[in-house]
Amino acid sequence: MKLRARLIITLVVATFTCFLSLATALYVELTAFWEGRSRHLLDESASLAAANVNGSVEHTLANMRLLVSEDVLDRYLSMGEERYTLMYDLSAKALSRYATLFPEYLEIVLLLPDGVEDIRIADDIRSPEAEPAGESLFQQALQDPYNTYYDFINQERFDGPHLTFYRALYTIDRSLGAYENNKVVKGVLKFTVDMNWLMRHDPGSDAAEVDATFIASRGRGVIYASGLSQTQARGLSNIPGAGVDGPSQYMARMMGEDYLVDSRPLLGDWRLYNAMPFSEARSEFHRLLFTAIVVLVVVFVLLGWFIYVQMDRMIVRPVKELAKATYHILHAPDKAKSLRLQSGEIGRLQQAFLEMEGQIRQYTRELKTQAYTDSLTGLPNRHAMAHMLALLMRRNEERDQSLALLFIDLDGFKQINDVYGHQVGDSLLTAVTGRLSSVLRPSDVIYQISEEEALEDTDEERNILFRLGGDEFTIIVPNIGARKNAAAVAQRVLDQLRPPFKVEGQETFIGASIGIAMCPDDADSVNDLIKYADTAMYSAKAHGKMRFEFFSPQLEHSEQARLAMDNLISKALDKDEFTICFQPIIDLRTRHLSGFEALARLYSEQYGWISPLDFVPAAEKRGMIDHITLLVASHACAFVKSLEAKYQLQPSVSLNITAGQLVTGEVFNKINQLLVDSGMSRNIFEFEVTESALFEDRKGCAMTLDKLRNQGFRVSLDNFGVGYSSLSHLKKFSFNTLKIDRSFLRDLHDDEAGQAILSSIIAMARKMDMAVVAEGIETIQQLEVVESLGIHLAQGYLFSPPLPAEAALALYEQDSAIRY
Fold first, then answer.
1. Distance from chain centroid for Cα 750
2. Rounded to a whole number, what is the distance in angstroms from the first to the last CA of the chain?
3. I need a labelling partner for 757 at 20 to 30 A (CA). Which of 24, 39, 247, 705 fits?
């Protein structure tokens, strides 16, 4: 979607959202305002009507009291028939004065006790007539001359509502006795007051919204109603809460119409009610709301259009110009440099993009160099090797040529790194890089980043060196020709690494194992070629190190077997499938148990029992040997604790340690912690080290052995008599025990020279305070020779094979001496 379309959609959504929010807020506010206004107007109208009604009643009562107190009416009523001649005009004038001052008085009438009008002041002069019979207010006034009685009374001769007031005129006749009984009623004064203002609301005023007015009382019900029928008024006044003592407003529903009703008290038990139907208020409100919404729509449409025009001018058009400039920068940098720069912010952005383009190209070159170069040695790395191999293999296929890949792994580098530290290790790698580079001729190149440069500058005479990481290097030999040429390059590498290295004041030796794979003879893909060279390297390392080997299909099967062994060991560790056995060591003098050697055994349903000679080197190579050793140590602790709990015995247990473990020493810290957690002393463990392990790093081994002995551990030299068999080891390294290998003892009963040599070794060991153990005793003849030579400790299948912990514990439940 284009930017302008997205802008229009965004503006429409934003404008509609703002309009909807504002319209909602306006509706809420107008609703509250209109309802409040209606209640306020109703309250004002009701308050004004109530005040007028109460005022009319009060000032009429006051006027009647004044008129009654005047002597002219008293004298008039006290006369006989002569009053019409002597006092009529004067009395009528007194009444007319009040009618003139108060226009709302429709009539002022003086009634005789029999109800006949005597004087009547009104607009329409009529003959006096008797007051309608049964008129209650008239009768009440005759009976009670002290009070004034009033009410709304319907009289057809008057239009609209009116109040009628009655008050008796009396004289005192002292001849009648007591004061309470000497009043004689001479007449009744009647005032009729116009209340049409209750219906005559000014159409131009707010009170015109009041639709109905009525007055009701508790005793009589609806007294007066305007705008409603008596039934409707009665229904609105009978709502619960309508008759509270003070003013109140409430909602009432009648005949499908909602009314807002205001009720407030008048004189006596009268209440005034003003009613306003909500439909009228709502219609006016809806008209106002519709007008407001129309105005809002017009305003928002005009505002949205204005914003769109401005954003199109200030953003969309400049961004399109900037996009055009960016396209030229990315796809036609030469054209971008000649692009006409815009003015203002867009021009500065274009200039910034041009500068950024140059920096990005520079950074890209640097990042590509870093991605393909080893930071420590400056050699091309694994990615560069894969890239170069792909190029050369494609070119060799086109030219029908071959190449060789030499996979180099340094022997013993890990031990040097662990003992002397990473700084020495890094310096050693740099020195190795220098020697490997010298294998290349001065005209050789290392690597070119550009594919075109690599193809131009790399010919068949040049070898290319890479560092893959850690202590692994590779050399690509293009157009190798015969296999012997690859062998010659590998031999030159070995010769360069043979002299000692002096790094950081330390003189150290390091070798290399080299695997060689040929393309296309061995593989025609990059991954396979690297894998096969790696497989050949491992085979060279397994066959003695400091040598090279070519890849062969048999090695691939060996590699698959190695991977299967790695998986088998890993699975056994995860699922605790190793069997830990204990082979007893016998004291030949007492025939009692002297100790045990703890051994790990591995069984596979596919391969059966697997020899330690197979799984121990594999576990050491893959970094899993420490886990196996800790597993054996843990079972040994549990075994000794069982013996201690059951027989109060704590025999020593021998654990086999590899060369790598002896150099790094990491596993001994974990064994120390295991003993602390188990609450056992260190002297229960004796670590067995083979002679071949001592050749890995003599100085490091000596330091580790001294440290172990100082911590309280015992150390033994295992398999003495195999391989190097140097007596100097007994002098240089401190051992507690010397274990004679079974191969040394196999034909010893017929070898007098061998017996003499062994006798000398035993004598020397005793002078060095070392115990001597004969391993692999399987026959009575071997045992007799061993005893004749003075060896007191022995182990072998003649006494017992390695046993699981339960079976080894059972040895103590047999006779006190071991039978054989």
1. 80
2. 94
3. 705
Strands 592-604 and 578-587: antiparallel
Question: 63-111 pLDDT, tens per residue?
Answer: 988 888 888 888 888 888 888 888 898 989 988 998 888 888 888 999 8
> How confident is the model over 216-253, as pLDDT tens digits?
887 778 877 877 787 888 888 877 666 567 788 888 88
Residue with tokens 């934003």: 14
* pLDDT value, residue 741: 85
**811: helix, strand or coil:** helix
Distance CA 23, CA 619 (A): 77
> What is d(CA 3, CA 331) in angstroms, rounded to the nearest whole number?
22
Q: How far does CA 253 lie from the centroid of its chain?
A: 55
Rounded Cα distance between 369 and 362, Å, is 11
Tokens of 243: 């008759």
Q: Residue 467: which residues within 8 A CB-CB, separation 6 or more? A: 374, 376, 377, 379, 380, 381, 429, 433, 473
Token digits of residue 531: 């894998």
Cβ atoms 671, 704 nearer than 8 A: no
The stretches of 658-751 forming alpha helices (DSSP H) are 659-664, 666-678, 698-711, 728-732, 742-745
Which of 483, 485, 559 is CA-nearest to residue 522?
A: 483
pLDDT digits (tens, 9 = 90+) for 664-699: 888 999 999 999 998 899 989 999 988 776 666 677
Asked if residue 339 lies in contact with residue 328, where contact means CB atoms within 8 angstroms, the answer is yes
pLDDT at 453 over 60: no
pLDDT bracket for residue 405 (50, 70, 90): very high
Half-sphere exposure of 187 (CA within 13 A, CB side): 21
Place of tokens 């075109």: 452
Cβ atoms of 661 and 626 closer than 8 Å: yes
Helices (H) and strands (E) in the chain — how many of each? 27, 27
CA atoms of 376 and 371, how far apart (whole Å):
13
> CA-to-CA distance for 447 and 465, rounded, in angstroms?
8
Helix 553-575, helix 625-647: angle, nearest 10: 40
Where would I find the beta strands (DSSP E) of 589-742? 592-604, 608-610, 652-657, 685-690, 714-720, 737-740
CA distance 40 to 744: 122
Tokens, residue 57:
């009643």
For residues 654 and 716, is the Cβ–Cβ distance under 8 A? yes
CA distance 634 to 504: 40
Longest dimension (CA), the chain: 191
CA dist., res. 55 & res. 635, Å (int): 113
Kindly list the distances between the CA atom of residue 115 and the CA atoms of 142, 188, 435, 709, in Å, as whole numbers in the listed order.
10, 8, 150, 145
Number of C-beta neighbours around residue 308 at 10 A: 18
Q: What SS3 string covers 374-398?
A: CCCCCCECHHHHHHHHHHHHHHHHH
Please give the radius of gyration of the chain, using alpha carbons only, rounded to the nearest integer.
Answer: 62
Give the HSE-up count for residue 398: Cα atoms under 13 Å, Cβ half-sphere: 7
- Which phi and psi (to 5°) does residue 364 adopt? -65, -45
- Nearest-CA neighbor of 57 among 207, 268, 206, 241? 268
163 in Cβ contact with 73 (< 8 Å): no
**What predicted TM-score, i.e. pTM, was given to this entire model?**
0.45
Chain position carrying tokens 């001649």: 85
Residue 464, token pair as written in the block:
């290319």
Q: Are 695 and 730 within 8 A, CB to CB?
A: no
Phi-psi region of 476 (alpha: psi -120 to 50; beta: other; left: phi over 0): beta
Closest CA to 223 of 182, 274, 163, 179: 163
- 513's CB contacts (< 8 A; 6+ apart) are 408, 409, 411, 537, 538, 540, 541, 545, 546, 547, 548
Amino acid at 378: G
Nearest to 254 by CA among 271, 278, 272, 274: 278
